[in-house]
């Protein structure tokens, strides 16, 4: 559709007839992201509250459709890239974020650790180094004062505020570790997401666990078994062995659903539930 035709459609968005507006909305949404700059220009040029509200609604629907599409494609073709999955979730709340900022911060963290990394270091020494870089120098920590805040699930906000929940901190920690060829992966422990350092000579065996929410505290098998016993759950592979990236993204979405429920934002809760249903 030509630009003049799109502008003509947008100019009619203040029509009080609900049926006419619905037809306009449907048509503009089918145009996809390329119509967003024209919608934004219309919003800026108008003082009509009705038109501005409708423009905001259409832009959000277009962007939400993009997030749904991106998430489905990620599940089908790109599950190995955890960061891309996290950035897709980020686009739900921050569609205009310059994602290069996230890549740059993670690259800086990797570089800081790499500078001190030595080949002969033991696994515990490598974890001590990562803890020092991420928690002491960079300042990451668990958001204990606002644990249920939605921002704890968005990687850009966690890197910006340096506060997050167990899974967001674990994602950052494991992404940096894996980029340094350190075999640290996510463990989908009920009620608490942790990490596992896998044996380099046998990648299917856990060497020890890492509680990232507690500043990288090292945990042994017996700590995990005792925790599961408290929950009356078996020590099954689902809880004690690394999970895949799809399971991590699902858990991030579940955390986000709970967070929006906690702050009584039912509209966002339902939208994130739709995202989860797409890949569950």
UniProtKB/TrEMBL annotation:
<protein>
    <submittedName>
        <fullName>Transglutaminase-like domain-containing protein</fullName>
    </submittedName>
</protein>
<comment type="similarity">
    <text>Belongs to the UPF0162 family.</text>
</comment>
<feature type="domain" description="Protein SirB1 N-terminal">
    <location>
        <begin position="101"/>
        <end position="254"/>
    </location>
</feature>
<dbReference type="InterPro" id="IPR032698">
    <property type="entry name" value="SirB1_N"/>
</dbReference>
<dbReference type="Pfam" id="PF13369">
    <property type="entry name" value="Transglut_core2"/>
</dbReference>
């Amino acid at each position: 559709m030509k630009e003049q035709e799109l502008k003509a459609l947008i100019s009619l968005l203040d029509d009080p007839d609900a049926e006419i507006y619905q037809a306009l909305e449907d048509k503009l949404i089918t145009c996809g992201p390329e119509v967003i700059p024209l919608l934004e220009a219309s919003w800026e040029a108008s003082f009509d509250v009705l038109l501005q509200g409708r423009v905001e609604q259409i832009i959000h629907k277009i962007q939400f459709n993009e997030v749904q599409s991106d998430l489905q494609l990620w599940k089908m073709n790109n599950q190995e890239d955890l960061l891309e999955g996290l950035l897709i979730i980020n686009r739900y709340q921050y569609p205009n974020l310059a994602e290069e900022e996230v890549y740059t911060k993670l690259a800086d963290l990797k570089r800081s650790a790499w500078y001190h990394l030595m080949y002969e270091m033991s696994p515990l020494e490598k974890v001590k180094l990562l803890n020092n870089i991420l928690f002491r120098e960079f300042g990451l920590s668990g958001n204990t004062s606002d644990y249920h805040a939605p921002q704890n699930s968005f990687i850009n906000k966690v890197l910006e505020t340096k506060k997050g929940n167990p899974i967001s901190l674990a994602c950052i920690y494991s992404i940096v570790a894996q980029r340094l060829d350190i075999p640290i992966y996510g463990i989908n422990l009920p009620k608490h997401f942790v990490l596992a350092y896998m044996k380099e000579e046998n990648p299917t065996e856990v060497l020890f666990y890492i509680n990232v929410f507690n500043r990288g505290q090292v945990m042994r098998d017996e700590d995990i078994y005792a925790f599961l016993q408290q929950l009356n759950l078996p020590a099954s592979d689902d809880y004690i062995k690394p999970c895949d990236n799809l399971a991590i993204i699902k858990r991030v979405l579940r955390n986000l659903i709970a967070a929006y429920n906690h702050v009584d934002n039912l509209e966002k809760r339902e939208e994130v539930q739709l995202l989860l249903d797409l890949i569950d």
